[in-house]
Amino acid sequence: MPNPSAPSTPAPPGTFAEEQRLIEALQLHQLELEMQNEQLAATHLAAEAARAQAEAARAQAEAARAQFAALYDFAPAALFTVGTDGTIAQLNERAGRLLGTTAGQLSGRRLLLFVSPESRDAFLEFFGTVLSTRQRHAAEFVLQTAAGSRLVAHVDGVVGTNLAGAPAVQLAVMDITPLSEEVERRQRSDDRLNLALAASGTGVWVWAFATNALEWDAQAQACFGRPHDPSPTSFAVLQDAVHPTDVVLMQQALQATIRHGLPLDIEHRVLWPDGSVHYLAAHAKVQYDAQGRPECLVGLVRDVTERCLAEEALRYRNRQFQEFLQNLPVVFMRLSAAGECLELTGAGLHRLSLPDNSLQGRTVYEAFPALTEPMQRMLSGQPVSFLGSTDTPQQRVHFQNHGFFDEHSQQGVLFSIDVTESEQAKAQLCEEQKFTKSLLDHHVDCVAAFDHAGRLTAWNRAMQALTGRPEAEALGQDVFACLPFSRDSPPGHIVEHLLDAGTRRPRFQQAFSLDGPPRDFELTAIPLPNPKAADKSGGLLLLRDVTERNRLHATAASFKAQQQAETFRMILMAQEVERKRIAEALHNGVGQLLYATKLHLEKHGSAPTAATTTEALELLETAIKATRTVSFELTPGILEDFGLAVALQKLAKSVAPAKLLLSLYLTGLERPLPQVLTVAIYRMVQELLNNVIKHSRAEEATLHVAYEDNHVHISMEDDGGGFNVATAVGSAQGIGLAGLYNRAALLGGHFELVSRPGRGTIASLSLPVIQPEQNPT
Fold first, then answer.
1. Facing residues of 215 across strands?
2. Percentages helix, strand, coil for the chain, rounded to the nearest 5?
3. Concatenated DSSP letters for 617-671?
4. How far apart are CA 330 and CA 413, in angstroms?
5. In the prediction, which pLDDT does 4 show?
6. Which among 579, 612, 619, 617 is positioned nearest to 595, based on CA atoms?
7. Three-state DSSP string of 276-294
């Protein structure tokens, strides 16, 4: 084959130009033919090479197809090629096994038939979305096998072509039923956990050591009285909320947890922002990183305020119960279902001389036979309440018992209260009621009582005799229907006042008269307050027949008037006697001396001598002394100047021993006495002394005057001849004694005279000392 690139051979010399041109043209054509031949040869070679490449590519494609077919059939997912009409064009063996049949039976059938009814609408929407968007999508559906069993499948879909090249949807389906069940189980577990946390009020918190950051959920923040804030905060916020009293305890617990890995389990108090105190239960555990270093503290917190307060209240109740048992007369007993005593305690056992739990192991029927019947009823399930009694060497003891049977513990519980004193008081009260009833029935006054509604509650025999209405008929009736006076009468107004508004007055007094034979009564009304209504009350009525008393009062008034007239007469007579005594003293004493002086002066008047003058002056001096004596007797100035004791001493010294040997004893008179009483005592002593000197014919006398126990006691005793007291006081000569009686009575005192003829006389006076009231300045 010629080389196209070789140079052409030049024409031989002497050749014609035409021939030369033809030769050149032939040479050029030959060259083109050679080139075309070379191109054909090259093309042939290329075609052979292309055929070889095509064969190789076909062989590679067949190998790849065989490999793809193997991968398609043995892929770990179920693969479906679904046409746009929803029919299955192609599927692998796993897809057949997934749906519980063979690939041949599934080919050409609609895939929707194997989708659970509740998932079909979602699958159609998914299938349409894949076709319309031509993008890959994934979803989860519930499928059902040919046998009807259900499974949860994860489906990935993308648009592709089928074997004929038509558009189709390629689906990869994986059975995630175990995973779904595990997820659902975990979800249920998480839901239960969250429900438990929410129900128990438990919050979760995490404290990162590296950053000191605290992450806590809403419930944990609520345990500290804070509104929910999702942002992390500093652990110092939690520490600052701890109650000051529990800070050291909390620090020690945290150190033990962080340093030694011990779990945190503590109850402590916290202060809320509003200042209230709450109790929290904290549980935590340290979490470690891959190198074993503490990374964080994960904990739970729960508000246990209500429980702590309840426990505190329960402890307080238990303490109260123990104090109740130990200090009050009660007995607590627990019994088995067979009646065996499990526990017996309480201060009430002292009355029975039994120590605590001394009857354990014995049945209640053996220990207290009298309780057999009620204990059998209680242990059979019936609650009991009864009064039991037993005899001790000292007395009969009574207990009020209350018991029930606890079905849960199968035990009987009995509380017994020592009511011995109460029962004794009831018995005594019953006796007192009988006595009161007897007393009312035998009371001379008419007695009736009514409650706040006006119903009679008491009616004695005297009232029955007055009204003619028996007690059984009167009790419970309206008060005005039975009483012997009307509602419009003065005593009726008192009863209405008690019924309508009550009163704070302790009692009312009202006199009234009944028609018929003239009879006078006095009503005493005593309010009886109603404990349920302060503005209502009942009353106790006492009707006393005062007809005779009024008659006696009238008689006494008449007698008193007569007595006052007699006293006035006696006073006038005493004044006359005093005037007569003064006149006699002036006439017999001063008058006689002055008359003697006159006679003496008249006898020697013409030529008086020194002796005559001296005698006249002595008579005048004697007259002056007599005048002073009379003046002293009338108005003793020493009494006002020096007091009663000195005046009495002066009076005693004025008695000449030749006339009477007088002994004077004074006690307590240094204390001041009222002026009126001082003068009265002096005059009465003076009267007693004059009586002794003038009438007793006594040689010796003793005078005692003592101020003690707010009384002045006067005693005059002589050894005279004595006399008949009744005769002397009633006679005209007894005016002085009668005056003593009257003076003592007017001063509120007492005068007593004891005398017998030949045996002397004892006169005694006792006068109360009443200090006069001070006038306000």
1. 206
2. 50, 25, 25
3. HHHHHHHHHHHHHHHHHHS-HHHHHH-HHHHHHHHHHTS-TTT-EEEEEEESTTS
4. 13
5. 43
6. 619
7. CEEEEEEEEEEEECCCCCE
Q: What b-and-e string marks burial along 331-370, b requiring 16 or more CB atoms within 10 Å of the CB?
A: bbbbbeeebbbeebbbbbbebeeeebeebeeebbbebbee
**pLDDT tens digit sequence for 2-19:** 444 444 445 455 556 766
The position carrying tokens 């007809």 is 547
Q: List own/partner pairs for 402-409 with CB under 8 A and 24 or more apart.
A: 403/374, 403/375, 403/378, 404/378, 405/378, 405/379, 405/380, 405/381, 407/381
Q: Which fold has domain 328-424?
A: Beta-Lactamase (3.30.450)
Torsion angles phi and psi, residue 455, rounded to 5: -95, 135
CATH topology of domain 74-182: Beta-Lactamase (3.30.450)
Query: Is the pTM for the entire model greater than 0.85?
Result: no
110-162 pLDDT per residue, tens: 988 899 999 999 999 999 999 888 889 999 999 998 888 889 999 999 998 77
Instruction: Compute the average pLDDT of residues 711-717.
Output: 93
State which fold the 636-777 domain adopts. Heat Shock Protein 90 (3.30.565)
Is 201-310 a CATH 3.30.200.20 domain?
no
Going from N- to C-terminal start, the domains of the chain cover 74-182, 201-310, 328-424, 443-545, 550-634, 636-777
Asked whether the domain spanning 328-424 has the same topology as the one spanning 201-310, the reply is yes
pLDDT of residue 733 exceeding 60, the answer is: no
Question: DSSP assignment of 388-425, as one string?
Answer: EEEE-SS-EEEEEEEEEEETTTTEEEEEEEE-HHHHHH
Question: Contact, 616 vs 600, CB < 8 A?
Answer: yes
- Residue 462 three-state SS: helix
How many degrees, rounded to 5, is the angle at CA 91 between CA 87 and CA 93?
Answer: 145
Distance (Å, rounded) from C-alpha 722 to C-alpha 728?
A: 10
Strand partners, 385: 402
Q: What is the pLDDT of residue 773?
A: 59
d(CA 771, CA 676): 10
Specify whether domain 443-545 bears CATH 3.30.450.20: yes
pLDDT at residue 7, rounded to an integer: 46
Residue 637 has pLDDT above 80, yes or no: no
Give the whole-angstrom CA distance, residue 225 versus residue 277.
10
SS3 call for 607:
coil
Top mean-pLDDT range of 21-35, 355-369, 617-631: 355-369
Residue matched to tokens 């030369």: 20
Q: Sign of the CA dihedral 466, 467, 469, 472?
A: negative
411-425, 512-526, 592-606, 641-655: segment of lowest average pLDDT: 592-606
Residue 716: what are its φ and ψ, rounded to 5°? -120, 120
Q: Are 666 and 682 in contact (CB under 8 A)?
A: no
Please compute the mean of the pLDDT values over residues 614-638 and round it to a whole number: 66
Spatial separation of the C-alpha atoms in residues 258 and 207, rounded to whole Å: 11
Quote the mean pLDDT of the chain. Answer: 81
Assess contact for 567 and 575: CB atoms under 8 A: no
Which residue would you say has higher pLDDT here, 448 or 71? 448
Distances from the Cα of 605 to the Cα of 594, 598, 613, 622, 623, angstroms: 15, 10, 10, 20, 20
Percent of the chain residues past pLDDT 90, beyond the cut: 19
State the residue for tokens 């006594």: 698
Q: Which two structure tokens, joined as six digits, stand for 464?
A: 């029955």
